[in-house]
TrEMBL record, chains A, B:
Cross-referenced InterPro entries: Tscrpt_reg_Rrf2 (IPR000944), WH-like_DNA-bd_sf (IPR036388), WH_DNA-bd_sf (IPR036390)
Gene Ontology cellular component annotations, sorted alphabetically: cytosol
Lineage: Bacteria, Pseudomonadati, Pseudomonadota, Alphaproteobacteria, Hyphomicrobiales
Cross-referenced Gene3D superfamilies: Winged helix-like DNA-binding domain superfamily/Winged helix DNA-binding domain
Protein name as it appears in the record: Transcriptional regulator
Amino acid sequence: MRRDTRLSGVLHVLLHMAEQKEPVTSEALAKAMDTNAVVIRRMMSGLRDHGFVRSEKGHGGGWCLVRDLAKISLRDIYEALGRPSLFAIGNRAQSPKCLVEQAVNAALDQAFDDAEALLLSRLGNVTLAMLSADFQKRLGDRRNRHRLEIVHAS
Amino acid sequence: MRRDTRLSGVLHVLLHMAEQKEPVTSEALAKAMDTNAVVIRRMMSGLRDHGFVRSEKGHGGGWCLVRDLAKISLRDIYEALGRPSLFAIGNRAQSPKCLVEQAVNAALDQAFDDAEALLLSRLGNVTLAMLSADFQKRLGDRRNRHRLEIVHAS
DNA sequence: CAATCATGTAATATCGTTAGTTACATGAGA
DNA sequence: TCTCATGTAACTAACGATATTACATGATTG
């Protein structure tokens, strides 16, 4: 099944914005993400409504982060996107009359509810600041690898 | 996103089959599930290949359960269906060059992997026998409700 | 104030996946 | 041999995420 990549996409955008002091245009973000500017605006509208980012029109306009990265969790972002459904698997009928199907739904619902609770809790424990730190670490690692390659080549 | 309802559907079918001693035709199952016989056969083919059910052609043919209900977990069924993807949310790129996206993917993967592990473990702890028992209990409850209604009406 | 830049948003197209249908082949049993 | 039932391929329909186009709105600059 085709997956919803908005959460992944929005996080990518936000971290790129965090690297920039100036507002970033939808056009620039779209280029970095290899997509269309309208897609960016659509993804960001929820975040704006929830006060995570601000958008400015006209010259020098674009998108800015408003809150501290350490104060934004992945779960916050997920909710700002409108809590898209997490699972690709579901029940055939919502409130079936068939008692067999009721028993099936009850069992599946319990398992999926547990998994959803765990997932949301995990997302709640990761902040954008942590992601940014991880990115910085990867950047350092890459630099070190390059340095090694240079040494070995000489 | 549209959800994959095959797991729910197969479980429904299997429990209905458990109530019947004779083989059940795809046509009969399709009627109970309000769908098409071909859809049933398609869903069941994986289960047959994994030895959970048997299919017989010709007069008196149809589908039979092979194993004990207590020996089949919901996870077994899930795997027999070919482990369809569980989540409706995913990463934009599989192995991105962008370090920002790598950091995002790593964080999301960890959360989703944990949730998947929990979900599969939960599914592994529920057997078809348990579902069948739950169904029988619901049946008893319904009978009791009806009996009460009759008493109150008299 | 006019030109330009950027967002806001509706309408539409595209693409992939699941579900449903039709058609026909195969095999078992009466 | 006729009928019943599965096995399977091919096609259609429906749905949702993503992409694109078009145009309106508002801010900045000269």
